[in-house]
Design brief:
264 residues, alpha/beta, 9 helices, globular, disordered C terminus
């Protein structure tokens, strides 16, 4: 039985927590957590991350339904409820769509999209017992506006966006909030070596974010129950403009590609 002080704090679960945005979110949310669960595939890195603060490390691949069920069972056994679920687990592959092919597209859908769906589905009974429960799904600016060479990745992030928007409406009557975070380019191990390359050009003036900045956006969604946050905020206007005028986007990326070809 938890005492009143512990009940006032949150039970938090974060996927993709061994590095990058997930690990930064763990550092940001840990002070307000009575219990923190960190989920990731790399057990060694996860254990090292969990050593930074009191946390339970759960080694699991979110694309494996049996492992996802194990995650929920562990939370059920230890705390019996969940107040905050943050879905950060994801993979990135970039390149020409015809060269990456079906196998890569299927893998990114399994990990980025179906992994998110599976974790939410398994954890919903726990969230329904939580206090002011919140789900935060990390999409991407590419989940609003797809750049070239990110077809498979963008498709998986568009799927998260659509799923989350629908789920928000469905769960609102139960008091469960669903929020989305749309980061631009982030300096994480997954992205770092690709930034500025042929397949990941940086448009002029586009900032490269720290994982900590995205984690603070996640915290805003949790604390203020915001529906959507784009980081940096000015990219929200760019995505709206791109949706309204797709021909402008085509011309913009054509110019970026031409500039890259001249540099090469």
């Amino acid at each position: 039985m938890q005492n009143g002080l512990e009940r006032d704090k949150r039970v938090v679960l974060i996927t993709g927590a061994s590095s990058g945005i997930g690990l930064a979110a763990a550092h940001t949310l840990a002070p307000s957590a009575s219990h923190l669960y960190l989920v990731g595939r790399n057990t060694d890195r996860l254990q090292a991350a969990a050593g930074d603060f009191p946390a339970t490390a759960i080694g699991a691949d979110v694309s494996d339904p049996a492992k996802v069920s194990m995650i929920a069972a562990e939370v059920e056994r230890m705390t019996g409820r969940l107040d905050v679920l943050v879905n950060c687990a994801g993979q990135l592959e970039i390149g020409r769509a015809d060269e990456l092919g079906l196998e890569v597209a299927e893998r990114l859908i399994r990990v980025n999209y179906l992994g998110t769906v599976g974790v939410i589905h398994a954890c919903l009974p726990l969230l329904r017992r939580g206090s002011a429960p919140v789900i935060v799904n990390v999409s991407s600016v590419a989940g609003r506006l797809a750049p070239p060479y990110m077809a498979a990745y963008a498709a998986s992030k568009f799927a998260i966006t659509g799923y989350s928007q629908a789920l928000r409406q469905e769960l609102r009557p139960e008091g469960i909030h669903v929020g989305l975070v749309f980061p631009g380019p982030v300096d994480t191990p997954m992205v770092r070596e690709r930034l500025g390359g042929t397949y990941y050009p940086l448009p002029p003036g586009t900032p490269v974010l720290t994982a900590g900045r995205v984690a603070r956006a996640i915290q805003m969604v949790v604390e203020q129950r915001l529906p959507e946050v784009t980081v940096p905020r000015r990219l929200a206007a760019a995505t709206r403009l791109g949706s309204a005028f797709p021909a402008l986007v085509d011309r913009f990326y054509t110019g970026i590609a031409a500039a890259g070809a001249q540099r090469d």
